[in-house]
Structure formats: C-alpha cells, structure tokens
Amino acid sequence: MTQALIVIDVQNDFCPGGALAVAEGDAIVPGVNALMAQFPAVILTQDWHPAGHSSFASSHDGAAPFSVVQMPYGPQVLWPDHCIQGTQGAAFHAGLNTDRADLIIRKGYNPAIDSYSAFFENDHTTPTGLEGYLRTRGITDLTMVGLATDFCVNYSAVDAAKLGFKVTVRVDLCRAIDLDGSLAAALQGMRDAGVTLA
Fold first, then answer.
1. Catalytic one among 13, 15, 26, 107?
2. 183 Cβ neighbours under 8 A, 6+ residues apart
3. Contact 102, 44 (CB under 8 A)
4. Is 166 a residue of the active site?
5. Which residue, 47, 48, 126, 169, has fewest beta-carbon neighbours within 10 Å?
6. Positions in the chain short of pLDDT 70
C-alpha cells in the first residue's frame, strides 16, 4: 500500500450555488467516487474556517472579495465568507462517497492564517499533520483530485512534490477558479515542481 488518493475540498461552498462556487465543481463527483476504488488509501481534505476568518473580505473594512492584502506570511487573496465550521457550506458534497475515507484532514481553522495546502498553512511552515500520517503508513505516491485546481490542489501538489512524494494531479477531476490567469500559472508551477498532470 504505497498509493493514496487525496480528494481536496469537494464541499458545498465550492460547488454551484455555494459561497465560493467553482464552475462545474460538482461535475467531478461521480468520477472521483469511481477513482476511489483504485486506491488502497483515500484521504479527504476539508476547508474549515471559523467565522470572521482573516482571509475573508468581510473581515477587512471596505475590502472587496478577490482583492489581495499583505498578511504577515505574504500576499493573501480575500475571499467571500466560505466553509465556515459546522455550516452546510462547509459540508462535503452530498454525492461524495465520504465512507471510503481513511482520514479527513481539516485546514484553515486558525483564524489568523489561511491554508490552501493539505500539508502546510499559508506560512509554508506550519504543518497540518498529513505528511506524518502518510509517512507512517508508508505511502509514497499521491494522486490528487478536487477543488480548486489553481489554489488548494495546486498548493497541495507542489508541497507534496517538495516533500519528496511522487505526485499526479488528475486535471480532468479538478475544476479551477481561474482568477486573472491563476490556472495557467498553477499548471506551469505544478509542472516545474515535478508534478505529473494526467
């Protein structure tokens, strides 16, 4: 068992009708469920913000959603309020086969710092614990799917590659926000990091 499927943030707020909807975000669910059968280990990530999180535009007077501010850890896109702990928006898409998950890892719960990656908060140093879990299970090869290609999938894939995992992103089972060319930049960044795009 050296392979794991990592399913990133397939949550209601990232699907059509959600607070931070990714176009066709729900369209990947059947394919993701089917892919789970091919992997001995399945891990789900879940964006899990407290109300009033510092990455929300509503937490900054007069700031517009999708504007960028400087945080102590670097530039931060300000998002619409989304994936607030315990809300329906933070719940996994109803069609996702969550029973198949060995582990659900929650991220973004520190109110002072956002967390795109499944491995680190946005300071790139505070770990989520996922690396240790994978290492103790002897998992070396990761396949990633989910939302959104250019943010949480991208950051997770690049961090995993930097940590020495063999990483494949199934681009057909991801969907992107594509904010000002962010998708093209993310795809190139993943390639540069040694991630296989399939």
1. 107
2. 149, 150, 176, 177
3. no
4. no
5. 126
6. none
